[in-house]
Specification:
Shape: elongated
Strand order of the largest sheet: 3-4-8-6-7-5
Order of helices and strands: HHEHEEEHEEHEEEHEHHHHHH
Helix content: 40-55%
Radius of gyration: 32 Å
Largest sheet: 6 strands, mixed
Number of helices: 12
């Protein structure tokens, strides 16, 4: 039966070639949508590694260059003044903010192994306030001050990627060949800190320690506020900051609002591609329907002859849908030849084999369902004529 249907399709290859090309293009677009949707869904299920509720950030934006002596004194004044606000439960320093694409990276060579990671800094007790989870070792402590090494914290992905077979506590991850060869000693391993939000990839991440008493060039202050926040808090704090250091600009934003903005920005590519895919699906569905309708009309005599020879309506209906399914499979197979090269050649780092196969099966199921729906009604129309009417149909 399959061979017979394939021969019939081959005999009408000229009329089927256009619809096969449309199917291949549509399948590639649906595959891309499936990859983005499934990847984002999987990433969204991974915990952030910190809590964003009731967290706010004061961003200091100097209008001139940073003056080490003067601005550090000003920063300490700002910290002490903000701490006195009744709504502020705790205050911490964080160099690169959450839910923004402010990236600080570093690459080092350790024992012949190239190590790359994203880096950030925060002060003692910040991890506990943020709600981070410690897997091994300890957090930063006051006794880390005035040591002959710089303590660092690494995430579980860092350990998994670079030290999968051994203990990392106490290891030095400084680049010994650089001028700044001061030891960077791992003192703890935390589960995760997905700085860029739920839709970002899990990457190796390292925290260095900042000292609240000597903050250095830290332009971000994180606040843990009480749940019953005074509506005038934001305006009151900004006015206070402007009075302390009028030469700077300031912003006060909640982590939650920044998270919502980050999610909207991250879903723009998916929304755009989904819109394009929607229009393409409509065009392909119309092509399916029109080609199959024309095919059924042109084969009315053939269908009538088959009915006269004893074929029932159900078998003819199945034949028409089966032909369309085979045409769809051919289009999918052509697209598959090109798509399978992507994970094989590593064109996109995020597109691994599990994601590829799940997206491929999802796109295939969608296209086959679309083909079956488009072929159902024309196939039903083809079986409504009696054998005598079909043989005399013009």
């Amino acid at each position: 039966m399959f061979l017979h249907l394939f021969k019939m399709i081959w005999n009408r290859k000229r009329s089927n070639s256009l619809i096969i090309a449309e199917i291949a293009i549509a399948f590639i677009v649906i595959f891309a949508v499936a990859v983005l949707a499934i990847r984002n869904y999987n990433l969204y299920q991974i915990p952030l590694g910190y809590n964003y509720e009731n967290m706010w950030r004061i961003q200091i934006m100097p209008t001139r260059g940073w003056n080490e002596s003067k601005d550090e004194i000003t920063l300490l004044q700002i910290i002490n003044s903000v701490k006195q606000q009744p709504e502020v439960e705790t205050l911490h320093l964080l160099e690169n903010p959450t839910f923004r694409n402010w990236r600080s990276t570093r690459s080092v060579d350790i024992d012949g192994q190239a190590i790359s990671y994203f880096r950030n800094t925060f002060d003692d007790n910040a991890a506990q306030t943020f709600g981070m989870t410690l897997n091994d070792g300890r957090w930063f402590e006051p006794q880390d001050s005035n040591q002959n090494y710089d303590p660092v914290l690494v995430n579980q992905e860092f350990v998994k990627r670079y030290f999968p077979n051994g203990k990392v506590i106490g290891k030095n991850i400084a680049d010994l060949e650089s001028e700044d060869s001061r030891e960077k000693r791992i003192v703890g391993v935390f589960q995760s800190f997905r700085q860029f939000g739920e839709l970002s990839a899990v990457v190796p991440y390292v925290f260095s320690r900042s000292d609240m008493q000597a903050p250095g060039k830290t332009l971000g202050i994180e606040l843990k506020l009480s749940a019953d926040l005074d509506p005038t808090f934001e305006q009151r704090v900004l006015e206070m900051l402007k009075a302390l250091a009028p030469e700077n600009n300031y912003s006060l934003t909640s982590w939650e609002s920044q998270r919502d903005s980050q999610i909207r920005q991250s879903t723009i590519p998916l929304t755009t591609l989904a819109t394009i895919a929607g229009f393409l699906i409509i065009l392909v569905a119309m092509g399916f329907f029109a080609v199959l309708w024309q095919c059924v009309i042109s084969r009315t005599h053939e269908i009538g002859l088959r009915r006269a020879l004893g074929a029932n309506a159900a078998s003819i209906h199945k034949q028409i849908i089966g032909e369309l399914m085979i045409v769809t499979f051919i289009g999918i197979a052509i697209a598959f030849i090109g798509l399978v090269q992507l994970p094989m050649l590593g064109v996109f780092q995020e597109l691994d084999w599990p994601l590829f196969w799940v997206s491929l099966l999802t796109a295939m199921a969608f296209m086959l369902t679309l083909a079956a729906l488009c072929g159902y009604y024309p196939g039903k129309i083809a079986t409504r004529h009696s054998p005598s009417e079909a043989l005399h149909y013009d």
